[in-house]
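FAQ
Q: What does a multi-component entry look like?
A: The components come first, one per line:
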Amino acid sequence: MFSELFLPVLMVIFMLVVGGYAVAVLDRLVASALGTPQAGGIWLAPIARGAWLLIQHANATEAPDWRAWRLAPALYLALAAGGLAVVPWSASLVATDLVTSVVLWGSVEALATVVIFLHGWSANSLLALIGGYRYVALGLSYILISMFVLIGVALPAESLQFTQVVASQEGLWNVIRQPLGLPLFLIVGLGMTFWGPLNLADSTDLAGGTASEISGPPRLVWDMARAAMLVAFSGVAATAFLGGGLGPWLPGPLWMSLKMLAVLSVLLLLGRLLPRLAPERCVTLMWVVLLPLSFIDLVWAGIGALL
Amino acid sequence: MAVNWLHKLASRGSVPVFPVLGKQGDGALRHLALSPQIELVDSPRHASVLLVAGEIPADRFEPLRRVHDQLPYPFTTLWFRSEPWPHLERVARIDDLDDLPGALVTAHLELMEGCRGSTHRLLPDEPPNPWEGEGDFGQGGEGMMGGVPYGRPMAMNMADDIRDGLTLDSLTFRLGPFFFAFPPGMAAEITLQGDLVQTWQTQFAPYPQSLDDIFFNARERPVPIAEVELARARHHLHRLFHALHLAGLENVSLRTLRLAHGLSTSSTLDGLRRALSRSGFFRLTAGGGVLGPEQARMIGGSAARAAGMADDLRSEDAGYRRLGFSPVCQTAGDTHARWRQLLDEIDQSLHLARLAERDRVHTERTGSVETPRGPWSARRPADASALFDELLPGLEWGDALATVASLDVAGVADQPVGTRPSGESRAVRGGTGNDV
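Then the predicted structure of the entire assembly, as tokens:
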């Protein structure tokens, strides 16, 4: 009972907290390295911010959909937890080793669209609503590319189970076997987690977009959920393309942590180095450039699996 | 005990400040942007301190009250070079720019540690207009559409789409005069379909902007060209800082501000230009906003030159001619062309300043001057914000805001940037008489 129910739950909660904190620290480290000084110390600042948000009251807008508005951050956090639950840290250390874990991750991406729109719409406020619209308009293109790329890594594994995807990379990691896969998946990750150049839902031109009207604890949950989703995405990317916990000398979970940190660092660096894409250019990039590339990636993976 | 510990922890972070800009308040904003302890936020919901910077005209009092009441508890306010309203409790006024970051940090610290109570709301917590909805969902009782609950029309399909025929419900709203992406003081009534601007009516023009006093002096007497050009480059860099923040390039925007802060004849633009090109600022970000010839002429200055018009009063000054000045131009006349133009003009200004400093060249023509905002001959450059009404419909929201940022539309004030008041920061007595 303990090992089947409580241990996986504890493991996911641990990853949510440590992962969210790691994202906050890493992002500040990147900003600091790029010339933006950070107040309060890089290690303490995220905790101080969390404390401030706990003290600040949750505000009200005029006639919001209260239930949806308060639930949306928690639902997004739950989706991130669902994603983290299927990330294998080694062949045996995985919270939930579903045989369809790749499909579950696909559903997390699809449901994220619903939750993000709900967050923007339920505030009954203009800029939040536009943020929600934007995510829905662009979300489908991210999800399609992500699905093709993930089917590509499932083919050599002949399984939709992430632990099998890792096992199939014993000889050669997918990042080399399918060279288009990881770059495409990283771009999908920025879009799906609306981070940096693809942050069109919570963007500066919308004064925070879907989060423009939230304060206090709901904002803390939303920020934590966004960070946790980035961690979950990094876990899936490291599992699908970088061989998960595979590697010499070090134990599997340590290899996995290092690979996730590497993916996170790349995403956070891109987030600070690139400007936000115009939505129209974003749609063009997704449908005209990246989607055909994801077809090629899939054909490449299929031929590789047949040979 | 645990609560005290939480409050102490909260006071250790940066101070989230929402700036409300009055006349000449933008200098405070730029000063704070370079202060590591201060985090300037774009939404009042994300702030702990409301900073009123500069004098707020009486016709913006009502919007200020509404913004004030949007800050979540606990919050406090601080007024910089602006007289706090007499009925406000425990409100501090600061006049010295150097004291401002420290005062904000202290205000946040006191608020978190409980030494200072939260400011109270100014307006009653009730809808701004009476409930006028009918039907099950207050939609007006006419099917799913119509009705004006709380005095505002619901989003509904009232006009054809002006882009691609995909008609969505129109949503009309008012934004400003303290929306961070607008020029200070500007407010507009906007109708959107999705995120496409359908109509735009500028309701409040931005405050007249104060220029460096060197431009006022240049109209009266010969002045060193090096000083004029450094002031011009600084003005343009300040605008670029704002646009880069809007584009999500926070690091480069602060780098731009630092460059403006320490600008001298030995400064170069190469690093910043490279950083902007590499980031894809000119290719990937929101654009549009092409000016027609008449519109370009109406704004004048660098916006007109970005549209291919080589008008520049510096061409008529013998001092500038000796330095080999000729106007630089772009042709496209859109948002990206305007930023390229601005970078070229900053480069040119730095080059002219270097030459002028070396040869000690002064302006020779008085009575008129090419300001960074445009030509000032008989009349000061006037407000051109009405231009947005015809320029922005048809653009997506991101493109519209990028266009607003790229156009320097505010007129020029009749006074130069104020000299810094001397003396230390002081607290004034609020309406209830509590010293701060």
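Q: Is there any commentary attached?
A: Sometimes. For this entry: Strands of chain B lie at 15-21, 38-40, 49-53, 76-80, 92-94, 170-175, 187-193, 196-204, 369-371, 374-376.
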